[in-house]
TrEMBL record:
The lineage of its organism: Bacteria, Pseudomonadati, Planctomycetota, Planctomycetia, Planctomycetales. Transmembrane segments: none annotated. Residues 41-162 form the Gfo/Idh/MocA-like oxidoreductase N-terminal domain. InterPro entries: Gfo/Idh/MocA-like_OxRdtase_N (IPR000683), Gfo/Idh/MocA_oxidrdct_glycsds (IPR050463), Gfo/Idh/MocA_OxRdtase_bact_C (IPR043906), NAD(P)-bd_dom_sf (IPR036291), TAT_signal (IPR006311), TAT_signal_bac_arc (IPR019546). Its EC number is 1.-.-.-. The keyword Oxidoreductase applies. This is Putative oxidoreductase YcjS. It comes from the Bacteria. One of its GO terms (molecular function) is oxidoreductase activity. Keywords: Oxidoreductase. The keyword Oxidoreductase applies. SUPFAM superfamilies: Glyceraldehyde-3-phosphate dehydrogenase-like, C-terminal domain (SSF55347), NAD(P)-binding Rossmann-fold domains (SSF51735).
Length: 460
């Protein structure tokens, strides 16, 4: 028997409600401890796909410098042991996040698991009274974004998503957003986003599960699958666990572009695009049946390889999303970054540069004005350190710079792109109702079923 992924999240939330919640951490209460004490941190998902540690281990270490790490959890016991070595072996180790939440009751949880586990764990942690820092992309589906946004609002917990471009990279992205919103490019601004293509390898052979890894738990709510190293270590190229480049780099660049265009709290009204998939994906494939576990593909990468998509907004602005952006009538071509263009000029930004004629011509007073706008965009705090921003917000109980609500709107646009390419047609979207207009097939792809074995928390 299977249930909807939404049911899974609701049941996870209900289970989490059984866990007694700690008091809110503020300078005044500090959980009854000395005001100089640090919030306790538990890190869930710390190893794997990028060398010795993945991004989960990286963010966990950053959190440990600002809080007091007390526990680590990973479905691979080798990863928990390796991570624990850096803490003198003093951390309590877990393979089941539900047991950790019940026993440790941490103040803060960092989540660095594969993407399909982000929201289930986040909701359980929120319900357990924890503030949460979660690696991007936060969601696997549009419905997950709606669910976790609602739980954050209900619980009042602080939640930061790991889209570091909102804080770091020498403020390049913040300045680009400020320049666009200041009107310097004009009133009618479009964005052209390139995020790179995805690989198309496979099928891959199934192999034995490595010692120490609970593979069934790793797969979790996703459809049951045999183990292969590629499936585990390169999960971003499998729709069962992620969304390809669209939710990888798209979670960064689409986020900045949508913010600059003024739609970070809303979204597009139409999606027009096309794309290609790896050879293992047949034409007119039933993606809904596949993602719900009722259809099969050979065991290989299955996310979009190339794409050219327009997200159209209510005011007429367009965000064009490509693997590589090329303009036939000029020498403009780039594989990673954002080009903003209006009637008064254009600027280009990526992690290495912010450039354009307009940038070169900025006066000292212009720079001062842009810096003031950056401070306003950053909610009055000092940018530069994304994790520090999260911990500062633990003190004043404000939502951080990459809050759940705006990130959900970013991820909705990413998912809209994927759904349009899956179905091979243009789609209309109602950003207020958060539903497709007149398209039941597209609407079905906004949520998924989950395996029942992962609906009930341990010991309940």
């Amino acid at each position: 028997m299977t249930s909807t992924r939404r049911d899974f999240l609701k049941k996870s939330a209900a289970t989490g409600a059984l866990v007694s919640a700690p008091l809110i951490w503020t300078p005044d209460t500090a959980f009854g401890r000395n005001l100089n004490s640090k919030p306790t941190v538990a890190s869930i998902g710390v190893g794997g796909s990028r060398g010795r540690y993945n991004q989960g281990g990286h963010i966990a270490r950053k959190a440990s410098k600002l809080g007091k790490t007390i526990a680590v959890c990973d479905v691979d016991s080798v990863h928990t042991a390796e991570f624990n070595k850096d803490f003198g072996g003093k951390l309590n180790e877990y393979t089941d996040y539900r047991v950790l939440l019940e026993k440790e009751k941490p103040d803060v949880v960092t989540i660095g698991t594969p993407d399909h586990w982000h929201v289930p764990i986040a909701i359980a942690a929120l319900r357990a009274g924890c503030d949460v820092y979660c690696e991007k992309p936060l969601t696997l589906t549009i419905q997950e974004g709606i669910d976790v946004r609602n739980v954050v609002k209900e619980t009042g917990r602080v939640f930061q998503v790991g889209t570091q471009q909102r804080s770091e990279n020498e403020n390049r992205f913040l300045k680009a957003v400020a320049i666009v919103q200041s009107g310097r490019l004009g009133k009618n601004v479009n964005a052209y986003v390139a995020i790179g293509g995805a690989p198309s390898e496979g099928p891959f052979e199934s192999t034995a599960v490595p010692e120490g890894l609970d593979w069934d738990f790793w797969v979790g709510p996703a459809p049951k699958a045999d183990y292969s190293e590629e499936r585990r270590k390169q999960f971003r190229w499998w729709f069962e666990y992620s969304g390809g480049k669209m939710t990888d780099w798209g979670a960064h660049h689409i986020d900045i572009a949508q913010w600059a265009l003024g739609y970070d709290k809303s979204g597009p009204v139409e999606v027009v695009g096309k794309g290609t998939f790896p050879p293992i994906v047949p034409d007119d494939f039933n993606w809904d049946a596949f993602l719900n576990g009722d259809a099969k593909l050979p065991s290989g990468f299955n996310t979009a390889v190339t794409f050219d998509i327009d997200l159209k907004f209510k005011n007429g602005s367009v965000m064009n999303v490509n693997d590589v952006y090329k303009r036939p009538d000029s020498n403009i071509e780039f594989g990673n970054g954002i080009l903003f263009e209006g009637e008064n000029g254009r600027i280009f930004v990526n992690r290495g540069k912010l450039e354009g004629k307009l940038i070169d011509e900025l006066s000292e007073s212009d720079h001062e004005e842009i810096n003031a706008l950056v401070a306003e965009l950053y909610k009055g705090k000092t940018p530069g350190n994304h994790m520090q921003n999260f911990f500062e917000c633990l003190e004043d109980r404000q939502q951080p710079i990459s809050d759940v609500s705006t990130h959900h709107r970013t991820m909705t646009s990413c998912h809209l792109c994927n759904i349009s390419v899956m179905l091979g047609r243009d789609l209309k979207w109602d950003p207020k109702a958060e539903k497709f207009v007149g398209d039941e097939q597209a609407q079905a792809l906004t949520s998924r079923r989950s395996r029942d074995s992962y609906l009930v928390a341990s010991g309940t």
